[in-house]
Design a protein that fits this description.
This protein is mainly β. It has a domain of 102 residues: Jelly Rolls, CATH 2.60.120. It is built from two helices and eleven strands; from the N terminus they run E-E-E-E-E-E-E-E-E-E-H-H-E. The chain has a six-stranded antiparallel beta sheet with strand order 1-2-3-10-5-8, covered by helices on one side. Strands 7-6-9-4-11 form a five-stranded antiparallel beta sheet, with helices on one face. A hairpin with a 3-residue loop joins strand 1 and strand 2. The radius of gyration is 17 Å and the shape is globular.
């Protein structure tokens, strides 16, 4: 087994831990989904991004897509998540986890009549915050601007029938 190359070369360690008390404030809100920033690209120096997503009943989520430079993982805290793993839709329940490496097709939504809460983990920590905050605005601008915005944010959407 091997570890990555060292990134800290000091001898005694640093006082560098970051604590944030709970609960996080809602950073992005839509009629069906609230997004909470737990650890952002900036706060982890690009190592990872961690977000809590609270989706209302029948919330649409994201259609089939992939990322070229980041992995995305889903951890279900409560409720039931409909998760697409590239081949089929799976029902994820409390404690279930889905890892999607770079290039992996995936999608998610809440098909149930109950609330869904899950964690999203991106690695490395791409600056996803602008994507979350502005995707609805770009969707209103039209398909050409939305497509360019999504590509700029490493989100490549494909035919949902695939």
């Amino acid at each position: 087994m091997s570890y990555p190359e060292p990134r800290y070369l000091g001898e005694n360690g640093d006082i560098s831990a970051v604590f944030r008390s709970s609960p996080p404030k809602t950073e992005v809100s839509s009629p069906s989904t609230d997004l909470h920033y737990l650890a952002t690209h900036d706060s982890t120096d690009g190592e990872f991004g961690l977000y809590r997503v609270d989706m209302g009943p029948k919330a649409p989520g994201a259609t089939t897509h992939f990322h070229r430079s980041i992995s995305e993982s889903f951890y279900v805290l409560s409720g039931e998540a409909s998760l697409f793993d590239g081949e089929r839709w799976i029902t994820g329940r409390e404690g279930d986890f889905l890892y999607v490496p770079a290039g992996g097709l995936h999608a998610f939504r809440n098909d149930s009549d109950e609330m869904l809460s899950m964690l999203l983990l991106f690695s490395p920590g791409a600056p996803r915050e602008e994507y979350f905050e502005k995707v609805a605005e770009y969707a209103r601008r039209g398909p050409e601007e939305l497509d360019a915005f999504q590509v700029r944010h490493d989100s490549f959407f494909v035919d949902p029938g695939r």
